[in-house]
Amino acid sequence: MEVSLTYLADLPLYKDEKPFYALLRPTEAFLARPPGEDWVPEHPLSNLEFEVHHNIPVHNLRGQEETFSAQKNGFEVLCHMSSLWQVLNTPSAIEAYKREVDELLYTKFNAVHTFTFEARRRRNEQFFSRVYSLGDPMLVEGPATGVHTDFTVDSGPRTIDTYLAEHEKLLYLGQPGYRFRIVNTWRSLVPVLEDNPLAVCDSRSVDMADLVPADRIIPTRAGEVYYGRYNPSQKWYWLDKMTPEEPYMMIMYDSHGRSDDARFCLHVSFQNSKAPSDAAQRSSIETRSIVITRLDS
Question: Can you tell which superkingdom this protein's organism belongs to (predicted)?
């Protein structure tokens, strides 16, 4: 199937100015503005510009799921039944789901420690509110914009240091022989996903020059992601009619590994021209987890 994907525009600006976007606390002036009035911030909150590339082949993983692995390709399709995917409507259910993902990744990687530090629900609809709390466990966002990864070689270690407890840092970060990964899962919350599915890119087809570091600034800290530049050599995949028992697992950062191991996974949602008009509205949940293994794992 050929689809349209949104990439970071290849602007001369980015040779002199690092891409960035900021999600900041609303100012008093913003909150005091009349309802419906456009808001122009005193300083720009983003310099991101995107461009759509058409007729990009996206290959169906259905029937060949077992030939792709997170270590080799940056992603894989898991077979995992969640006991919670239909009841993620309370903060306690979200926390229980994160612990469920901990157990899944602990077994999958033969890990010594896992910690799922974030879960994000998304739904394919237009959201009009410009004021929301990133710390709200019940926050629902729209599909992420632009081909990207969630962490970089710089922000991965900073994130691990942020979320590990002090005794865990002493136990693992302060000792040799451990490998640290940040791993995402992405699960459909509708029985059959056809509307706005997620495409994943084989990391072996991505040149490091395709990855553009961008600052992501929130009230509590500054992070960094990679946005993708278009390259016709990239190989994209998707899973047709994905079910909740078939979550993606994606590598976002790896502290070690052989030279041919995947260190990241570009991904982005896309409009599925094959989706029927009555397809269930895309709803999904993604998690971000620290996975610590022995260095030889």
Answer: Eukaryota
Token couple for 290: 């620290």
- The overall pTM is greater than 0.85: yes
Contacts of 155 (CB under 8 A, 6+ apart): 223, 224, 225, 253
Report d(CA 52, CA 67) in Å as an integer: 30
Nearest Cα neighbor of 45 from 61, 70, 25, 29 is 25
CA dihedral of 283, 288, 293, 295, whole degrees rounded to 10: 110
Question: How many residues can be counted in the chain?
Answer: 297
Q: Which residue has the tokens 């040799």?
A: 176
Q: How many CB atoms lie within 10 A of CB 172?
A: 18
List pLDDT tens digits, range 124-177: 876 445 655 567 777 888 888 899 999 999 999 999 999 999 999 999 998 999
Please name the residue ranges forming H helices in 78-194. 91-109, 155-163, 166-168
Sheet holding 283-294, edge to edge: 75-77, 248-254, 178-188, 283-294, 113-123, 140-141
